[in-house]
Design brief:
about 725 residues; TIM Barrel; 10-stranded mixed beta sheet; 5-stranded mixed beta sheet; 25 helices; about 45% helix; globular; binds iron/sulfur cluster
């Protein structure tokens, strides 16, 4: 589990006009599902623009934004008096903190742009981007006035004027019509000297398919491939953002557009009436889809950014938010499921983009071309192929729980240093931010070096320090119920009362510690505190079993997993013994002690403890070097019904490598457990073999490779 942080909004679409002097037939504002423009005031009033400048200032301060972008948008923004636009930019510049640099651009069809307006915009340092679909024959297919007349000549005149102001000219936006050949388009733009260009595919969804594609299914794939090849070979002087962002994503960098890769919501819109909106293009889906239900007068930008719709949108931009088809797709890491509005099917976004087939042909093609151009035998992949440990450690030795294992100690000590630094910084922040806690901060700081380090490494303290330092950066974290986990300086009293005198090296069992529950919201049930004594009896039996199996393993467990919490899962099958651990609270093992209404068998509880400790041991290693190159595509796992990310399967193999040994050891035990152990060992072996086999065809790092071969060898020799 990952705690999610609140979004960081850095771009603002300020809709200063809600009407347009053109009537482009593909326009998502006027000629699509959402018709809310009709009830919007034609122009944004001065009071809304002033309110925006104040809201933006407050947000920049809160987020410590160094840069942000305000885009004057519409409709056609030049329907507003240009003096008012310049004035708005000035209000914003005056309002925001001196540490924030705000860039401004205007997205215009250019028809109303003249020399005088251009000079005013230039003097106001407002960049200009023009919408133009290509030569007259292409532009006239869609970009017409309300009377059906061409807008081409006027837009071209604006473009000619702009050529004399390269300082503020930010580029051209062109919507593709596949009836215009890529060569004609690129020739035209190159001929008029465009240096920065965006090709946009017509906004479509399962409700309204891309024009002409139903008649000719390959028409967009062929067009895109032809355009890419032409561009890379003959027009590399044009900065073509669409293809450049595809290449960036293929090389494992940020895509820069929502068309490829994964990302986060970083843009909000503000309509002329001051209402907040999510991505504008969502207007193609249904009436009101982009509306966040809040207004600039009554709500802050932060509140708007935390609205449920933005939350859903953020999820859709991540792997977890994709439909199952995308999750299993071989190019998912580059495609990212495509633009969110293009996934809409009339009800939801749980679908591949309507441009899926284009993605499936364009991405491998570009991958091939790049591989050839870069003259490399290795296929271009999205992450560096063979990343190794950042520290000099023998991973095979690290994997083994043995007496005085120097490689394990090296990693453990690094983790200790990191946690100590983090906790120290969090304490300093509290002392400075909430002076009434400076006394308790001092007390904790005066703990012995050894005890301070031991406290820092406790799972709950680690989480508390993470949340505290995020608060310093004005970032909120959310629990599994998607509720914020708040900064809580009063937790220092708990630390003072419970951990300052804690010096021995035994486990902390089933504590009443809120920070061990916080990340999981209401999703996890904890045993009643009354269960403590009963639970402890069986727990200590289990720890004895582990000690007999491998005393060094128990010693390691005490170091990296010092906390054991008793949980319950009322929904679990009575035969199933539930347990989990999570990197958000590193070192806490959450274990169920009952099967049905009876106490569980201590041998099975020992299995759960070893299981979770092995997850923790691998997490620890992964802080200093990955074992896999990529999580995608998801793979079959013998331990789950659904497909898993490659890292999830690797964790399974890492865990069951030890458990196979544990049950093998017990199968030779001179007690009644031996016969159950034989069966359990047999079952673990076959699943382990299957897991190892699947991983051999996945992309692993050198370290992951070495460990996997070792697991396979141990299994063969057993
Ligand atoms: S110029 Fe822009 S806002 Fe106006 S109709 Fe065309 S696409 Fe829509
Ligand atoms: S190519 Fe299609 S299936 Fe694959 S991730 Fe993209 S939209 Fe999903």
């Amino acid at each position: 589990m990952q705690l999610s942080v609140e979004p960081r909004i850095t771009s603002f679409l300020l809709k200063v006009a809600s009407r347009c002097n053109l009537n482009c037939d593909y326009c998502y504002v006027f000629n699509n599902a959402d018709q809310t423009w009709r009830s919007q005031p034609p122009l944004m009033s001065a009071s809304i623009r002033r309110a925006f400048s104040q809201r933006l200032a407050e947000y920049c301060q809160y987020k410590n934004l160094e840069n942000c972008l305000v885009i004057f948008h519409g409709g056609e923004p030049l329907l507003m008096n240009v003096n008012d636009i310049v004035q708005t930019a000035e209000w914003i510049r005056q309002a925001v903190p001196a540490s924030t640099k705000v860039d401004f651009t205007i997205q215009t069809n250019g028809v109303l742009l003249n020399k005088e307006k251009l000079e005013k915009l230039s003097a106001g340092n407002i960049g200009i981007s023009i919408s133009l679909d290509g030569p007259k024959s292409a532009n006239d297919l869609h970009r017409l006035t309300h009377k059906g007349k061409s807008s081409f000549d006027k837009t071209l005149q604006a473009y000619d004027l702009l050529k004399h102001h390269p300082d503020i000219f930010t580029g051209v936006l062109a919507v593709v019509d596949v009836r215009t050949k890529p060569k004609d388009l690129l020739d035209f733009f190159s001929g008029i000297g465009v240096s920065s260009l965006d090709f946009l595919l017509p906004d479509s969804s399962y409700n309204s398919h891309p024009p002409l594609r139903d008649e000719n299914p390959n028409i967009y794939s062929d067009w895109l491939i032809e355009a890419f090849d032409l561009w890379i070979n003959n027009y590399p002087h044009i900065k073509l953002r669409t293809f450049e962002s595809l290449i960036s994503t293929l090389l494992g960098q940020q895509s820069g557009t929502d068309f490829f890769g994964f990302g986060d919501v970083s843009l909000l819109g503000i309509e002329t009436d001051g209402t907040y909106h999510d991505l504008d293009v969502l207007k193609i889906t249904k009436e009101g889809q982009s509306h966040l239900g809040m207004n600039i007068i009554s709500h802050s930008i932060l509140e708007a950014s935390l609205s449920p719709k933005v939350h859903l949108h953020r999820k859709l931009l991540s792997f977890d938010g994709l439909c199952n088809t995308c999750k299993e797709c071989s190019v998912v890491e580059v495609c990212g499921g495509g633009s969110v509005p293009h996934r809409f099917n009339g009800e939801d976004f749980d679908n591949p983009t309507i441009y899926c087939q284009e993605m499936l042909t364009l991405i491998p093609h570009v991958q091939k071309v790049l591989t050839h151009l870069l003259n490399t035998d290795e296929e271009i992949v999205t992450l560096p192929n063979k990343k190794n440990l950042d520290v000099d450690v023998d991973v095979l030795n690290y994997n083994t729980a043995s007496n005085n294992n120097i490689d394990f100690k090296k990693i453990y000590n690094l983790w200790g240093e990191k946690s100590t630094q983090q906790f120290s910084s969090a304490l300093e922040y509290v002392a400075q931010r909430v002076p009434e806690y400076s006394g308790v901060v001092k007390k904790i700081q005066s703990a012995s070096e050894e005890n301070f380090r031991r406290i820092s490494i406790l799972p709950s303290v680690h989480l508390w320090a993470t949340v505290t330092l995020n608060n310093k950066k004005n970032m909120l974290l959310f629990d599994l119920d998607e509720k914020p986990v708040h900064f809580e300086p009063s937790y220092l009293i708990h630390i003072e009362n419970h951990f300052l005198s804690f010096l021995d090296d035994t486990f902390l069992v089933h504590q009443d510690d809120p920070w061990l529950r916080l990340p999981f919201g209401s999703k996890i049930h904890f045993e009643d505190p009354m269960f403590l004594e009963e639970g402890k009896k069986v727990l200590y039996e289990s720890l004895e079993i582990i000690k007999d199996y491998n005393p060094s393993l128990l010693e390691e467990m005490k170091l990296i997993s010092p906390v054991i919490q008793f949980i319950r899962d009322p929904a679990a099958h009575p035969d199933k013994l539930v347990s989990f651990s999570d990197n958000v609270v590193p070192g806490a093992l959450y274990v169920c002690m009952r099967q049905g209404s009876d106490l569980a068998d201590p041998y099975d509880i020992a299995d759960s403890l070893i299981h979770e400790y092995r997850h923790q041991k691998l997490y620890l290693l992964e802080h200093y070097g990955p074992v896999i190159v990529s999580d995608f595509p998801y793979v079959e796992s013998p331990w789950r019904d659904e497909k898993r990310p490659v890292s999830g399967l690797y964790h399974g193999v890492f865990v069951f490598h030890e458990l196979e040994k544990y049950w093998r050891y017990l199968s030779n035990h001179p007690t009644a457990i031996a016969s159950k152990a034989k069966n359990t060992n047999l079952a673990s072996r076959s699943m382990l073999e299957e897991g190892i086999e699947t991983l051999t065809s996945c992309q692993l790092t050198d370290m992951g490779d070495v460990l996997l071969k070792h697991f396979s060898h141990v299994l063969r020799e057993a």
